């Protein structure tokens, strides 16, 4: 029998699979198939997830484990900030360590356990890097202005007043910031249209791009909504909130490096802090690492991508997380909250 854990960071939900428990590890093709099948075959009541997080032994001596990320559509992402927090918690509990490095496809990233956000809401801080404004790293084509930082009148936008920035963290992100009180404030409807356009066939981002809109609340507080490549609308995107934080610091006069920011999202909140050292940017992403359910199924069903017969044991952590979220300010930006089927 095999164990899976349903996990989330800011309700950006995944199934976590530790390949080290298996007699025969799933191939990349099987992992891609699993990520595409879990929402269709999972037991009733578990809700949709955005993909599968895969834990295995690290290939590097300085990291205690490796994380791979498979999106809902079966594609593979080089990083996932919300997912990395949950993997960090899993590895911390396995190894009884609280400060270590995790191998990802982009880099070996330092992580550490921090004070819980609330009772039964454990939290971790993870480092988001490497970061690049290079067009090749972002997958940006046919835009002569590089780096792309706070530019408007771009050919892919129907809103002439919207400004855009692009950065790889290392996933590619397109960011637009707005004052939520502005008469031309960005809408989620526009985000959805733009996200679909830039993740379909297009000349500017032929490999697709994560698109995030950030609504200013004050100098140190934002609300961020993301249309994620390979997923669509998500309750939260860790690298998206990190990228938006960095663009905020670089373009907002009152924002500062090394300053703690609060980032609200449809699934809750995180904190971020951008740094610039040795000619490189890094971002701390701090947030919850919640385990909602433990699943147990046969290895044969796992290889087939079928969770239908899994035994499910719920934790009490989702109740604690909802209690924490209920005490947060509920910013109202019209249509920026998720629809019911996004949870």
UniProtKB/TrEMBL annotation:
The residues listed in the UniProt record as binding substrate, with positions renumbered to this chain, are 12, 71, 81-82, 171, 210, 228-229, 238-239
Q: What is its EC number?
A: 5.1.1.7
Q: What class of enzyme is it?
A: isomerase
Q: Which reaction does it catalyse?
A: (2S,6S)-2,6-diaminopimelate = meso-2,6-diaminopimelate
Question: From which domain of life does this come?
Answer: Bacteria
Pathway, according to UniProt? Amino-acid biosynthesis; L-lysine biosynthesis via DAP pathway; DL-2,6-diaminopimelate from LL-2,6-diaminopimelate: step 1/1
What's the main place this protein lives?
Answer: cytoplasm
Instruction: Print the keywords alphabetically.
Output: Amino-acid biosynthesis, Cytoplasm, Isomerase, Lysine biosynthesis
Its signal peptide is none
List, alphabetically, the GO terms of the cellular component aspect: cytosol
UniProt-annotated location(s)? Cytoplasm
One GO MF term attached to the UniProt entry: diaminopimelate epimerase activity
> What family is this?
Belongs to the diaminopimelate epimerase family.
Q: Which NCBIfam families match?
A: DapF
What assembly does the database describe for this protein?
Answer: Homodimer.
What is the name of this protein? Diaminopimelate epimerase
Q: Which species is this UniProt entry from?
A: Furfurilactobacillus rossiae DSM 15814
Specify the taxonomic lineage: Bacteria, Bacillati, Bacillota, Bacilli, Lactobacillales
């Amino acid at each position: 029998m095999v164990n899976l854990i349903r996990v989330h960071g800011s309700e950006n939900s995944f199934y976590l699979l530790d390949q080290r428990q298996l007699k025969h590890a799933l191939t990349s093709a099987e992992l891609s198939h699993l990520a595409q099948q879990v929402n269709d075959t999972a037991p009733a009541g578990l809700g949709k997830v955005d993909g599968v997080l895969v834990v295995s032994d690290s290939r590097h001596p300085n990291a205690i484990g490796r994380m791979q990320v498979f999106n809902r559509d079966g594609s593979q992402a080089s990083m996932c900030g919300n997912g990395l927090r949950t993997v960090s918690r899993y590895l911390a509990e396995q190894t009884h360590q609280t400060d270590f490095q995790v191998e990802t496809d982009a880099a070996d990233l330092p992580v550490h356990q921090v004070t819980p956000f609330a009772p039964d809401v454990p939290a971790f801080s993870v480092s988001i890097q490497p970061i690049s404004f290079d067009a090749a790293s972002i997958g940006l084509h046919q835009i002569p202005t590089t780096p792309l930082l706070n530019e408007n009148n771009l050919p892919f936008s129907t809103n002439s007043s919207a400004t855009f920035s692009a950065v790889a963290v290392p996933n590619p992100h397109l960011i637009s910031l707005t004052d939520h009180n502005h008469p031309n404030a960005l809408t989620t409807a526009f985000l959805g249209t733009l996200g679909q356009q830039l993740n379909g066939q297009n000349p500017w981002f032929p490999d697709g791009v994560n698109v995030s809109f950030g609504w200013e609340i004050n100098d140190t507080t934002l609300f961020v909504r993301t249309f994620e490549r390979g997923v669509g609308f998500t309750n939260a995107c860790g690298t998206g909130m990190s990228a938006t934080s960095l663009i905020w610091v670089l373009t907002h006069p009152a924002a500062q490096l090394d300053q703690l920011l609060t980032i609200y999202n449809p699934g809750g909140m995180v904190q971020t802090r951008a740094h610039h050292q040795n000619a490189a940017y890094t971002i701390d992403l701090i947030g919850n690492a919640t385990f909602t359910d433990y699943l147990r199924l046969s290895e044969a069903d796992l290889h087939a991508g079928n969770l239908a017969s899994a035994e499910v044991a719920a934790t009490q952590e989702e109740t604690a997380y909802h209690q924490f979220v209920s005490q947060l300010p509920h910013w109202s930006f019209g249509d920026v909250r998720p629809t019911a089927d996004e949870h």
